[in-house]
Amino acid sequence: MLAPYVGADEWQQVTGVMPQARYGHQMVNIAGNAYIFGGAAQLSVRCPLANDIWKYSPDEDMWEEISPNDPPGGKIAYSVITYSDKMYTVFGQNPDSMSSELWTYEPWPRTWEEPPQGLTKPTARAYHTTVVSGDKMLLFGGSPQPLNGDLDNNGTIDICDAIIALQVISGMKSLSAINLQPDINNDGKVSLEEAIYVLQVLSGLRNP
Ligand SMILES: [Ca+2]
Ligand SMILES: [Ca+2]
């Protein structure tokens, strides 16, 4: 982790114990400390998704893994807000589906809580955004299902997905290290179908 020193116009490498490298997570500030939750270590939702939570204290310049009871399941591509010194994780992508879960993490005491069920909610989704406006949370956009051909699982179709398809076809990349949930033809493989599909999307010949 690199911590910027605001006003000093420089970055400084943070050393010591720290969270595992990951993507698809979020970081928030609560009372001057940074908290991260979730994400994945590899570009595949088939790999175990993280549900750990870590706190970084700038004053002590150190990371601490928090171990609250009953955390939500691992997820990526969720959104997050803070309100009244609590962190709210909103929806996201589970290993097998899109989530419509809303969870609250409260640092004092260190507890997770899922609000009562049965409320009318937006459709489950990932790659959306949320903000706080006054005492309301606003949610916008996102995808209700994995994007076909999104092999690096970043929510968009671009040239990187085509390169990954070609790397798998040529044996340069392992199938287990990529996101196969949006398999084009449901054959459990990445082959020319995926590469052609991505290139057709990029060239405007079809919509994703
Ligand atoms: Ca992609
Ligand atoms: Ca396929």
Task: Describe the secondary structure blueprint for this structure.
Elements: E1 2-5, E2 10-13, E3 26-30, E4 33-37, E5 53-57, E6 62-66, E7 79-83, E8 86-93, E9 98-106, E10 111-113, E11 129-133, E12 136-140, H1 159-169, H2 192-202
Antiparallel strand pairs: 1-2, 3-4, 4-5, 5-6, 7-8, 8-9, 9-10, 11-12
Helix pairs in contact: 1-2
This protein binds calcium ion (CA) (2 copies).
Structural features, described:
The chain is mostly beta strands and 208 residues long. It folds into 2 domains: 2-140, 6 Propeller (Neuraminidase); 159-203, no CATH class. Helices cover 11% and strands 30% of the residues. It has 2 helices and 12 strands. The protein has helices at 159-169, 192-202, and strands at 2-5, 10-13, 26-30, 33-37, 53-57, 62-66, 79-83, 86-93, 98-106, 111-113, 129-133, 136-140. It has a 4-stranded antiparallel sheet, with no helix packed on it. A hairpin with a 2-residue loop joins strand 11 (129-133) and strand 12 (136-140). The longest helix has 11 residues, at 159-169. The mean pLDDT is 87. It binds calcium ion (CA) (2 copies). One calcium ion binds at residues 183-185, 187, 189-191, 193-194.
